[in-house]
Amino acid sequence: MRSPDSCWLVSGPRWTGGSTPLPGRAGVLVLGAGVMGSTLAYWLARAGHAPLVLDRNDSPAEGSSGRNAGRVIQGGNAQHAPAIERFGHGQALAVYRATLVNRDLVREVTAREGIEAHRTTTAKLDLTDSEDEALELKRTADALSADGIAAEWLDLPGARRVFGTDLPDTVLGGLHRPDQDAVHSVGYVRGIADAARRHGATFSLGVTATSLERTEEGAWRVGTDAGEVLADQVVVALNAWTGRLLPELDARITPVRGQLVQTAPVPFRIPQWGLDRGLVYGGQNQDGSLLLGGLRTTVPNRDENIELPADANTPAFSPELADRLATALPALLPETAGVPVVRAWSGVMAFTPDRCPLVGAMPGRPGLWVMAAFSGHGMPYSQVVAHQLAERIGGGAGAGLPAAFDPARFR
Ligand SMILES: Cc1cc2nc3c(=O)[nH]c(=O)nc-3n(C[C@H](O)[C@H](O)[C@H](O)COP(=O)(O)OP(=O)(O)OC[C@H]3O[C@@H](n4cnc5c(N)ncnc54)[C@H](O)[C@@H]3O)c2cc1C
């Protein structure tokens, strides 16, 4: 069964930027018009590089970027305390700070370009019902505070106050962080893509890239179903499909299915939240409807390492997982009992072994770049890494790109 469209795709603005027939030559060619390719195109265009963007869909944001939960949360994939233990304090802080810069860039760019992203800003509560995770979250609250980042551990009464609703007695409390954004994914990404176009990017849509090779003259030849294009520099931003054009990364990228359910609007407001190390998570749209996602571990071996469809945006949709998500919500938020689930959909995520994305130069392949595998966590990085990568592509330092994201780490 194919996934139905997301709430963003059915309510989002249509793409009115059109499509240009594939030219034979490009300076910088960006493969993929998701949030990554579109945002990179925006920063490249603003720097005067007039990139060409190619995507197999007829509009930007038809892939996972138009099917996610729209959460532009802060922090890396792991909580700050375990991230410090794993990557060292300097790297963990660099990643966290990058997501703070990202939050500010999302706000700045949407305001400057007049993008209607339906942004909401709430607190985020990472809830737990396990003693182990509670300790990890308390250590994280301390580590963030020591780094000057607003965070605190709240016990159950405190968590209930922030939620403004009941929470089950099994919840021990949660890590509270203020000032977390969420956006209308399709409105946001198409707005960025359109701004990129206004600043000089060209979009060739409905074109599938099939091959990539270096010519003897040192350019990159990209084969597509609409002919060939030669480019001085190529950026591969194809999410879980990245390994199809960069086989050396294939073994490092695991395709993972993610699913979400959306309820009818409810008459109360809740913060963004996660439970059980984010394996189930949720938030609320501007219209009051609730989103709930995750629960992948409840169907082992069915959501990780999935068969990637060659030409579709989503893997098979699991009605069983959608049912589990629908029943998980009232178990956490009793007020939602009886609130109907109105929509459910799936999308593809690309995970790396260390849950850090692959962003930067492809080692030993001059002029070839990658920006992919965000491990279910792309929005918190999309502006900052696009901005910094555009700077590197233009010959600058791009020093704000965390070293932990360097694709060379897997050599
Ligand atoms: C259910 C779900 C919920 C999520 N929730 C969140 C969230 O709340 N916050 C968050 O930060 N992240 C979330 N994510 C992850 C987030 O969606 C991704 O990290 C992000 O969208 C990745 O962006 P992208 O541009 O790399 O990928 P995509 O948006 O998938 O873009 C890749 C593009 O490449 C194109 N493409 C692929 N192959 C080819 C080819 N051969 N030729 C031409 N074009 C091609 C596709 O058409 C697509 O447009 C979620 C993901 C899912 C599935």
Quote the distance from N terminus to C terminus. Answer: 38 Å
What's the β-strand tally?
17
H and E order: HEHEEHHEHEHEHEEEEHHEEEEHEEEH
What is the C-level CATH assignment of the largest domain?
Answer: Alpha Beta
Summarize the main sheet.
9 strands, mixed
Q: Under CATH, the topology of the largest domain is which?
A: FAD/NAD(P)-binding domain
Descriptive overview:
There is one protein chain. This protein has 411 residues and is an alpha/beta fold. It has two domains: 7-67 and 186-252 and 354-410, FAD/NAD(P)-binding domain; 121-179 and 253-351, D-Amino Acid Oxidase, Chain A, domain 2. It is built from eleven helices and 17 strands. The protein has helices at 7-11, 35-46, 80-87, 89-113, 131-146, 156-163, 185-198, 242-245, 247-250, 319-332, 382-393; strands at residues 25-31, 52-55, 71-72, 120-128, 152-155, 173-182, 202-205, 209-214, 220-224, 227-236, 254-263, 272-275, 280-284, 290-294, 341-351, 358-361, 368-372. Helix 3 (80-87) crosses helix 4 (89-113). It is globular. The two termini are 38 Å apart. Residues 31-37, 54-57, 62-65, 67-71, 208-209, 237-239, 241, 258-260, 293, 347-349, 372, 374, 376-380 line the site of flavin-adenine dinucleotide.
